[in-house]
Amino acid sequence: MIVEKYVFCILLYYLGSTKCYGDLGCFGTGKPFFSVQRPLNILPLSPESINTKFRLYTRKNSKSEHLLTYGDVSTLHGSHFNPAHPTKMISHGFIENGRTSWMGKMKDEMLKHGDYNVINIDWGSGSLPPYTQATANTRVVGAVVARLIKYLQKELGAKPETFHLIGHSLGAHICGYAGDRTPHLGRITGLDPADPYFQYTDRTVRLDETDAQFVDIIHTDGISILKLGYGMIQPCGHVDYYPNGGETQPGCEKGPVSSILTDGLYNGVAQFVACNHLRSFEYFTESINAKCPFRGYQCTDYKQFRSGNCMPCQGKGCGVMGFHADKVKPHAGKTNVKYYLDTSSSGPYCRYHDQIQITFGSKLFSRTERGALYATIIGDKGRTGRVKLTDDNEIEAGKSYTYMVLSKVNIGAIKTVELGWTHNSKWYKVLDWNILGLRHPTVYVDKISVVNGEDSKFVAFCTQNTAMETGQKVSISRTC
Questions:
Q1: For the purposes of burial, counting CB atoms within 10 Å of the CB of 59, is it exposed (0-12), middle (13-18) or buried (19 or more)?
Q2: Where, in this chain's numbering, is Ca(2+) bound (predicted)?
Q3: d(CA 194, CA 205)
């Protein structure tokens, strides 16, 4: 009897229960919401309990919110909402609310950029722990967002094509649910969509490329959940951007004390716990008005990108991560197109990319050396800093090595390359030691090729086995 009851309970849970909320429809816990990826699945709270609020900001009321309420037409007609202007809707994630600071910063940058209707979605009462409940609540919030969009269509003549939904973490999936209910929705941007209970689930359960006419994703925390990664690594948009490989971000290595000292108690704890996850909205916010374009390069994976196999991007086209991602769309029918780029460890994060390939020549008695290699690339518009290309790696005569060089400025047409290196032998290789500088370790530079990541122009410098002794700098300007 006990076994039969147990089996009955399992079957009941597998088949799922259902809760209906009027014009929002019914929400069940059965398939496809029950799966291996989502073994614990509960019903969402009622829309009244979640109490989602929509705070409108425009250039006419950029500092003072105006609440839009479904069913109260006076809140629409008494607002500055302009159906002729594009609409941006921003959703927060887990354990946040609509007054969180990053949403305010994003709103301000948007209104600085253009005359938009910006609506901050506040579902704070539904985003609280436990995570399983917040996950379930996103379905109701998505339905409520879709209902408001239809209400704005009906009462003010807004068009769904002009709506752009931006969501972070769980908020990204809210945008997906809203898009699933809104035919012809213009665009959704997923800022590191939440992984737990969403990754590798059915399309109905998570944000995917069918939820809007254009879906772009920024992945920043795709490391395994077992290592406390909170974001999806699975591609789920028309275009998927993976800054710094999409798993971890530079500058997120700080401990709890340094994070609190730098960012304050609340933000410091958040940065320590979820720094990689939070970077997605920091990149997006910066991209709105930055001159640097957050250029992305189409590639199969990050290793190939770092190896220099994805530049230049002529033919395939470069992508643009962030607010302006819709300027570069894939060909019709193409989805999950992956782009890679690198960023700085602190803001401003955007960097320009240049690729340098160095071919080392060989002469009589030349040998494999070991050390750190440095380069500066100089163009007609500026120069990179002195960039460390390698740690203490081996430099083998006759071989070519490819490196990525990041710069704060677009250096323009490449004119000169400055190279240098510092010898550092392994301690147990006594014959490689440079005792008192008597051995004079030297490498020979035969050819240098540089690709400008902005215009994809290629320049080759022929150096004809120029000797470069440790500690010295050589400057090469003669092109082949």
A1: middle
A2: 206, 208, 211
A3: 12
Q: Which is the catalytic residue, given 91, 122, 173, 192?
A: 192
Q: What is the pLDDT of residues 432-442, one digit of tens each?
A: 666 666 678 88
Delimit the domains of the chain by residue range: 16-341, 352-476
Domain 352-476: which CATH number of 1.20.1560.10, 1.25.10.10, 1.20.1090.10, 2.60.60.20: 2.60.60.20
- Give the span between the Cα atoms of 325 and 321, in whole angstroms: 5
CATH no. of 16-341:
3.40.50.1820
Query: Phi/psi at 209 (nearest 5 deg)?
Result: -70, -10
Q: Is the pTM of this model over 0.85?
A: yes
Q: Which member of 219, 238, 277, 353 is catalytic?
A: 277
Known catalytic residue: 277? yes
| Residue whose structure tokens are 């309990």 | 49
Alpha carbon distance 117, 95 (integer Å): 25
The answer to whether 105 and 285 have CB atoms below 8 angstroms apart is: yes
Cβ distance 92 to 127 under 8 Å?
A: yes
Identity of the residue numbered 80: H
Asked if 16-341 and 352-476 have one fold, the answer is no
Give every CB contact of residue 365 below 8 A, 6+ residues apart in sequence.
none
Q: What is the pLDDT of residues 120-156, one digit of tens each?
A: 999 999 999 999 999 999 999 999 999 999 999 999 9
Distance CA 175, CA 155 (A): 22
Do the bridges between strand 369-379 and strand 387-388 make them parallel or antiparallel, or are there none, so unpaired?
antiparallel
Instruction: For residue 206, say whether it is annotated as part of any ligand binding site.
Output: yes
Residue 164 bears catalytic tag: no
DSSP letter for 322, please.
S
Main-chain phi, psi angles of 450, to 5 degrees: -130, 135
Kindly state the tokens that stand for 109.
Answer: 């940058």
Catalytic hit among 169, 287, 407, 449: 169
